[in-house]
From TrEMBL:
Source organism: Marinagarivorans cellulosilyticus
Pfam families xref list: FKBP_C, FKBP_N
UniProt family annotation: Belongs to the FKBP-type PPIase family.
Root EC class: isomerase
Lineage start: Bacteria, Pseudomonadati, Pseudomonadota, Gammaproteobacteria, Cellvibrionales
Protein name, UniProt field: Peptidyl-prolyl cis-trans isomerase
């Protein structure tokens, strides 16, 4: 067992763990931790590069290209999953499909005014991925959210302008009307179709 009895050794170990966590968050197939350790050691000892810089440049470019290709393939798969879900969902009774690709289902039809693009609204919502995983929910937090209609994702902006106040709709949003190729945070991946239950409580302004 290694000795971490001194403050210096503890901090040194902590730095190594932080570097390890960073590498683990962005790994590539074939990453060799022994070679990583050798590179760290050589850097601190001021040793000559064990691999020629030109060879390093070529290797970095090759690995970068592999990672980009893998991400592109994963994105295609995610996009295909969302498209398949929406294609099947479009055939369900009660689902309306708009020209933009946005789909909605009326749960409760309100009778109040419809907001404009620049209105500020108060809503309750419950957002999930197509597999049912919850990524955000004002309902679960127990507190409605207020925002401008044009300050949210395009699918919401379009739907809210069609909703009379007091309505509750279920929205099925394709990735191009949601967070697109980038996704959002760790919960919403690239090219993800999203499902929201949205209750339009009030037009605030």
């Amino acid at each position: 067992m290694s000795d971490y009895s001194t403050v210096e050794k503890k901090v040194s170990y902590g730095i190594g763990r932080q570097l390890g966590d960073q590498l683990l968050a962005n790994p590539f197939d074939g990453m060799d931790i022994a070679s990583v350790s050798a590179g760290l050691k050589d850097a601190f000892e001021g040793s000559e590069f064990a691999v020629a810089r030109e060879d390093l440049d070529v290797a970095f470019k090759e690995i970068s290209a592999r990672i980009q290709a893998q991400r592109a393939e994963q994105s295609k798969e995610l996009a295909a999953e969302g498209e398949a879900f929406l294609a099947e969902n479009a055939n369900k009774e009660g689902v309306t499909v708009l020209e933009s690709g946005l789909q909605y289902e009326v749960i409760t039809e309100g009778s109040g005014a419809k907001p404009s693009k620049t209105s500020t609204v108060r809503t309750h919502y419950h957002g999930t991925l197509t597999n049912g995983s919850v990524f955000d929910s004002s309902v679960e937090r127990g507190e409605p959210a207020e925002f401008r209609v044009d300050g949210v994702i395009a699918g919401w902006t379009e739907a809210l302008q069609l909703m009379p106040t007091g309505s509750k709709w279920r929205l099925f949003i394709p990735h191009n009307l949601a967070y697109g190729e980038r996704g959002a945070g760790g919960a919403i991946g690239p090219y993800s179709a999203l499902v929201f239950e949205v209750e339009l409580i009030d037009i605030v302004a």
